[in-house]
Amino acid sequence: MKKFIEKLHFITHDIHQHSHIEQAQIACSAGAKWIQYRCFTKNDDELLIDINAIAEICDDWGATLIVTDHVHLNGKADIQGFHIEDFDANFIKLREQLGEAVTIGGSATTLEGLIRLANEGADYAGFGPFYTTITKPNNAPLLGVKGYQNAMKELKSLNIDLPVLAVGGVTVSDIDPLMNTGIFGIAASAAINQADDMRTAYLSFYDKIM
Predict the structure, then answer these.
(1) Has residue 84 been placed in a domain?
(2) How many domains in the chain?
(3) CA-CA distance, 102 to 82, in Å (whole number)?
(4) How far apart are CA 52 and CA 55, in angstroms?
(5) Range of the domain at 68
(6) Are 125 and 183 in contact (CB under 8 A)?
(7) What tens digit of pLDDT does each residue of 69-79 get?
(8) Where is the Thiamine phosphate synthase/TenI domain (predicted)?
C-alpha cells in the first residue's frame, strides 16, 4: 500500500524551551503536516498523555502523527505510524505486527541500509547523518551532499523507489543542495525547536522545501 509521505518531517525532542506538546502546537500552527514524536524519557502513561494531546493537535491541523519506536502503543492512541530507529529491526515482521494501514519509517546510515529498508517494505527512510547533530548523536560517518548524491544515484540504478529524507544537522542553507541530489525531503529537529523563534524557523524550512 503506497502511503502519503510529507516532504518536511518535524521531530519533537526533549528540550527546556518547549514541551513536546508545545513543539507540536507551534509547528502545526506554522503549517506542519507531519509530526514525529520522539521521546525516551517517559513511562507509558506519560507517553500516552503526550501522544493523545499531540494527536488532537494533529487532528485539528490535518497533520500526520508518527511516533518514534514504542510500537507497543499501537492502537492505544490515534497514531498514524511509527519511525523505527533500530538499524537491525525486521520490517517484514513489523508490518505483520502493525498491519498495512500503519505508516512505518526506518533509519539508515548506509546505502545497504536503504536497500534493506526498501526490500523489507518500509514506507520511507531517514538517511543520515548529514552533518553533526546534537539531537541523535551516533558514530556513523557524515554523509554530506556527496553522500546523498551517490546514494540516490545508486537507488535509481536499482529501480528502488523509496522516499529518502536527509536527517542530522540540516539547516536552511543546506536544503537547496540537498534537494538537488534527488532526495524526497528533509527531517529536522534542533534547527527548528531550538531556534529563538520556532515558528519562524519552521516556516523557513517549509518555504524552502514545499
Answers:
(1) yes
(2) 1
(3) 8
(4) 5
(5) 8-209
(6) no
(7) 999 999 999 99
(8) 9-192
Residue type, 17: Q
Residue 19 confidence (pLDDT) above 90: yes
Please list, residue by residue across 30-51, b when 16 or more beta carbons sit within 10 angstroms of its beta carbon and e when fewer do. bebbbbbbbbeeeeeeebbebb
Question: Cβ(64)–Cβ(36) under 8 Å?
Answer: no
**Beta strand pairing status for 185-188 and 164-166?**
parallel
| C-alpha cell at position 143 | 554523509
**Burial of 146 from C-beta contacts in 10 A (0-12 / 13-18 / 19+):** exposed
Q: State the CATH number of the domain containing residue 158.
A: 3.20.20.70
Answer yes or no: is 1 within a domain.
no
Domain annotation covers residue 188: yes
Per-residue pLDDT of 121-138, as tens digits, reads 999 999 999 997 766 666
